[in-house]
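Attaching the record inline, Q. Sequence:
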Amino acid sequence: MLNPDVGLFQTWQFSLYKNVMARLQVSKYRTRDPTKASAFIVPFDAGVHSYIDHLNGKPRLASPHGWRAIQLLKEAQKNETFWRHHGHNHFVFFSITVYQMVGIGVKVFFMTICQNCTSVVIETSPTFTAISGRSRKYWYAAPYPSSFHWWEGIKVLPWEVPSTSSLPRQVMTTSGVIDPQDYPARDILSLFIGSVKTANINSNLFRKTLYSQCQQDVGCQWYTTAHACNGVVNSTSQLLLFRRATFCPAPAGDSITRKSIFDSLLAGCIPVIFARASMSQYLWYFSEQDLNDVAVYIPKQMIMENNANFLNILREIDSKEVRRKQEAIARIAPRLQYAVVPDRYDPKRGDIWDPPIYDAAAVIIDKVLDRKTIEPIDGFSEQDLIQQKCLQNDIMQNHADYAGLFPGKTKGDAGSHVSNKVWSRNKCNTYNRDKGFNGSTFSVLW
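Structure, as predicted:
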């Protein structure tokens, strides 16, 4: 724990499985009788296990325990209770992004045993489905675990917006009277914490452009960190700066979104996004209206093609609009963080616990229990899978929502900018951009 008063923890960005499983183990919906279960959770994080070697902390592209998980699930197939729906009511929590599903053992896990599992991941694809051939169900996005969490000793909810009449006098909260310094002044116009050297050359160019604009403006602070999977480690002072910033730009990096979007929101800082998919992919957490209410959207093309200065755009936002966005953040922030289960609750004893606020794990639990989540009940058809693969490539290259990853591209013709090799390999000769897939359950607005 880095700062107990505001619930600041050292939280790894790839800890989705750990955070959700901690809650599931003490959930009132948990049953130890499989005959009463309506949903089953696969208790194995194939994503992280294939990405990081738990013995030495180094990256790897294999999942040795994945083979063991396959064996156990094959044994479960023999039990009609566990496998009565052929895996269609099974869920997998995958703590890395859908695009990182590459480890040996992971591919086999999904392609041979978990084709019908519904997956929850920290970042999904444009079609909310797996990359080519991995499974026949949706992959839903859940928030990156932020470094800010509710816990029972928290004194100040970091996303709260204090009443202007309350400051600088003492402020009353649910935990009692606190000092006004617990609500620091937002004296930083714009704050970015991250690297300018990602795995995406287009992201690097864009970040360097933002960095250049920031360096020339006294209202902007930019903290460059190493490009590493462990993120900002033990940087209490830097993470607390989110509580002093009004706007927090979130340019794409290796992928379209990043953990700091959720760090900033939970600290009450307004995220500035340059591709709507950075937030819109979290369907369970943001409606279109929510996105408009809490974030500032500046199309990447305005900066890269029209030479706009993002800081000048931010300064033009009316103070009343800033306040409205901060209040909107305060309303939805609780459901974006993962509350910490108190140590005294022991799942082995069958203890049950729910946080006093509706959090990200509660959203997931509700969706797991909702039968609509596992639709289509029989999985996607072969034609659906072909359409998905083609649509993913088309959206990534040509849709404005994903422009943050590519140089100046908005809407192009179907298949534009996609290599002929990829297009033909995915059998896209019959692709129809306007068709979507699986009937009316998925469509794209161009």
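The longest strand covers residues 188-194. Confidence is low (pLDDT under 50) at residues 165-176.

More tomorrow.
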